[in-house]
Amino acid sequence: MNNYLCVDIGGTTIKSGIYDENGQVVLRYPLSETNNSIAELNIVTRLKYLVEESIKDYPLSGVCISTAGVVNPETGEVIYAGYTIPNYSNTPLKQIIETNFQIPCEVENDVNAACLGEKWRGSLQGIDDAVCLTVGTGIGGAILQGGCIQHGVGFTAGEVGYLQIDGENYQDIASTSALIKKVARIKNKQYDGKQIFEMALNGDNECIQAIDELVTALTTGLVNIIYLLNPEAIVLGGGIMSQQAYLEPLILKKIATKIEDKRFNQTKITFAALKNDAGMIGALYNFKKRQ
């Protein structure tokens, strides 16, 4: 059985583990913090360390990378990373791994990878036309049509975080970061997303209102996506979507209220089945398809 190092690079952390060729996890590594403004927490430094540690115990058949940023999947290069990850644009991840370790490597955008993971092993099995959104530090998107990821002429298809909603970037008003900042302004104290939902469930009206405003912004984007693409499904992922029981009825109600007519509202809204593993499993699926 072949083993693969699967790596999911986000805005502030790296998830990683060893997976077999069927997408089953063999070993999970601890979450690794990154900060591309600090040398010792640099993404490439962390990535090299992960490979070095992995090959001590596992003969790797490949390194499969899912990463935030705009990726050219042909060259395995991060061709653009926005303000959420400084000093990351033009990073040739595939070249770095293959040159330093002589191990084949494939790289895909993190949301595209998550979408592929859901198609292979998750909530999109049997569905060929869908949109995936991950809501976290920013908002990422992926478009699946005919069972294949649509990259666009400049590899930026699905970059929904930059969609304009009332003159602001979608991800600046509808991401987990936006929720955290809003609650911090109201309460003059920092809480993480999980704490905010816990307080809302305990009746904190300020948190309830902040979440409601977040969902209002989020569903504005979802309705626009439904109008434009009319996909079979929209899959919602990212850490905040673990609050499915709280968010799902709110999301469905607001979409039904916003949309022009119920005949437009036939897209299934679902939640990522693979949770935090979606990017890593999708990175492996991408590797298998490209090698």
From TrEMBL:
- InterPro entries, per database record: ATPase_NBD (IPR043129), ROK (IPR000600)
Offer one Pfam family short name for this entry: ROK
CDD domains associated with the record:
ASKHA_NBD_ROK_FnNanK-like
Classify the source by domain of life: Bacteria
Can you tell me which family this protein belongs to? Belongs to the ROK (NagC/XylR) family.
Record's protein name: ROK family protein
